[in-house]
Amino acid sequence: MPAQPTAAPTHKPDAGEAPFAANAIRLSPREWLVVLAIVAPLMGLVPILWERAETFAPGDNCRIPFELSSDYWVFTRMARRAAARDQTLLLGDSVFWGRYVTRDRTLAAQLNRLCGKARFANLGVNGMHPAALAGLLEHYGKAIARRRVLLHFNLLWMSSERHDLRQKKEFRFNHPALVPQFVPHIPCYRASCADRIGLVIERNLPFAAWTRHLRVACFAETDVPTWTLDHPYANPLRQISLAVPAAAPRPLDDQRPWTARGIARQNFPWVPLDSSLQWRLLHRCIATLQRRGNRVFVLVGPFNEHLLAPSSLAAYRDRKRRVVAWLQQHNIPHLAPPPLPSRLYADASHPVAEGYVALARQLLHDDAFARFTGDRARVTAPRPR
Amino acid sequence: MLFHTWTFAAFFLVAYPAYLALKGTRLRLPWLLLCSYVFYGWWNYRYLLLIAFTTSVDYLVVLGMARSRRKKPWLCASLLANLSVLGFFKYGDFVVNSLNALLAWLGAPYAIASPGTLLPAGFPYLLPVGISFFVFQSMSYTIDFYRGRIEQEPSFVRYATFVSLFPQLVAGPIERASHLLPQLRRTPRVTAADAADGLSLFVVGLFKKLVLADTLALYVDKVYAVPGQHQAPALLLATLAFAWQIYFDFSGYTDMARGVGRLLGIRLMLNFRNPYLATSLSDFWRRWHISLSTWFRDYVYIPLGGNRKGPARTYANMVLTMLVSGLWHGAAWHFVAWGGIHAAGRVVTRRLEGTAFYRERLPRCVKQALVFAFVSFAWIFFRAHTLADAWLIVTRILAGSLADPACPLLALGLVAAVWAYQFLYESRLRRLLEPAPVRIAFVIGMILYIAIVPTSGAKPFIYFQF
């Protein structure tokens, strides 16, 4: 005869009551309190202890390894470290991150080289459009409060309805975990309600950010069960190391200028500034930073105007002019540098290594930027022509 | 809405405090009904009409029966209405496609249109989630009243709550009116022990679903998607993995449903009792999807004559019941084949199970292994996309060609751990699992594993399609 299921000893079933379960896992209210008393502190402590145990050497210039672009826990660590060193933090997309250059040739690295000191930290993240940056700052950027922030605005994010996240057709964009999940509505974002709520919770739970860190840093951005499909006989525990992976020594992409890479002239269908979602969310980024006492300097560009067809160029310049007017109107220090020489661009917005040198010089010779940095970053290098 | 999603968590965070706050008021049951309709309507609000239809028909039929001397026409009306709804939405396409295939084979120059064309514009022709569950639950009420086993339920709201109670609405357990309606009449009380029990059940169910079922599903899906590209070891392991996947998936759902029910102060029936420790096929069906097995026993097998009309009729009744059970699971021939295999197994082993040799001399673990092997074999027909795929898998397993199965050791390790737990639980060593520190350690382990390791993205329950 098969064994009849009975309840665990903590409860006696009522007469005629259905069996509780076919296992012994039944806790009383008091035992649940014990579970809560153990699990809650554990979940709070693990990320803190892990951060202490895990080695992390981003160098003076910083730069998040490409593979960890969606590891916001590492971003928080890097931000905290840079803030502690009182560095000026460069926040933006892959233009600041340095898509076509190595870690020591990014804008932050060139600024540091020209200043002779590690005053600037590269907190750029690959693919970090303004809508995502707003979420990154809001939820993972608290450590940088009251610090100087050089914020990048890349007008490329307004170059089409698709880039502006306003197209109705579904579109898989970068960093969906950071964009507003409910308001404002992003038409091309089709995550389920459950996923959206999950992401909102993840942003507010350090433990959830830490589990994302494990997935991204140790399991190639996937979950453990899926990882075991590709590594069926491997021990997942061996994947977990107490060191943040280092950045690859080589640049991500071909470093040649855009003209040598066969990129044709573009006729971008720019979105109007007034209805641009990315522009609206850049406002939110600035507001978040100002609310936290940050000193903000906005760098508009450098955009590759040489790549634009004439009609598109006119529309671009109109938007750039209006962006600058808005920044002036709100007394936000900024620089909208003239375009770099054509050969210094690798594509529509990313400079090649020499382009970053020229851009760094433009910044360091700008009076507003000097005031922003407290004149500490003045250099005697020749003025850019 | 799935129990293991944040949507459900948000829904429950609104529904539950209000439910508790309405203690002692007349609004508690209407609130539960409203929550149940929101829960179901979240999937597709249009299909709430179906639940409302089934509920209204059976409520009115029983009202009519209670006031009439002739009950049979009322019962027939209820069965006709319920089975028509089920037939149209669940089996319509299957029947039409089968007929069209037959017409094409006969060379007929026309084809029958999809039943979906009969629906009004804007009403998508979908298989309504959980239709087989709520229709069966509602039908049991009219049949039991017809048999004089229960009283008429005077309150429409209470009856509607019984049919649509959200914890068990979409995948059971298929409750009987005699068990659930009295609980709703008393207006459920929620004690601290109920809350603790509910949480215990829910965490175990969540672990079964998110950790065990979904981990195994990855390998099963990979192999069963293209069975022709895999050799015997992979197909065999994927089949065994599916046996456990479907158990963890469905029993996980049931545990969560019972847990949520218990949090509401409602006791839902046990639906699974370690079925892979069964020592015979009849024992398996006493342990697997108990609420459905007993439904078919009470409303199909026994009305057909059960075992009261001689051996031939008994076997015929068993076969028919199993075939209908197969068809209940899905409108496809491979589900019928699955039912047929189980029917054949029951016919062949019925006498054997009664022999002294089987009962006393065959070691228990051998019997368990035999039953598990047979049930797993039948699952091939359940899981395969088509009968042809199922046959391909069977022949490839039998051919025995060897190749690296690339089955994750993690998945196998999890299954081995759970199997060992079940063996221990049903053995004399069960006392080792019962001390409080052991139970607490298990729960903490499960919570941390759920928080750190599981697959990303909520996968629906297998039984939602039924």
Structure description:
The complex is a heterodimer of chains A (385) and B (466). Chain A is mainly alpha-helical and 385 residues long. Chain A has one domain (44-372): Rossmann fold (3-Layer(aba) Sandwich), CATH 3.40.50.1110. Chain A is 39% helix and 5% strand. Chain A contains 13 helices and 5 strands. In chain A, helix 5 runs parallel beside helix 10 (277-291) and helix 6 (193-204) packs across helix 7. Chain B has 18 helices and no strands. Chain B starts with 5 loop residues before the first helix and ends in a 14-residue tail after the last helix. The interface between A and B is large, with 50 and 68 residues.
How would you briefly describe this protein structure?
Chain A has 13 helices and five strands. Chain A is mainly alpha-helical and 385 residues long. With 466 residues, chain B is mainly alpha-helical.
- Provide the gyration radius of chain B in Å: 23 Å
* Helix content bin of chain A: 25-40%
Q: Sheet with the most strands of chain A? A: 5 strands, parallel
**Total number of strands of chain A:** 5
Poorly predicted ranges of chain A:
1-16
Given the helix and strand composition of chain A, which structural class is it?
mainly alpha
CATH class categorisation of chain A: Alpha Beta
Largest interface: A-B, 50 and 68 residues
Q: Roughly what percent helix of chain B? A: 55-70%
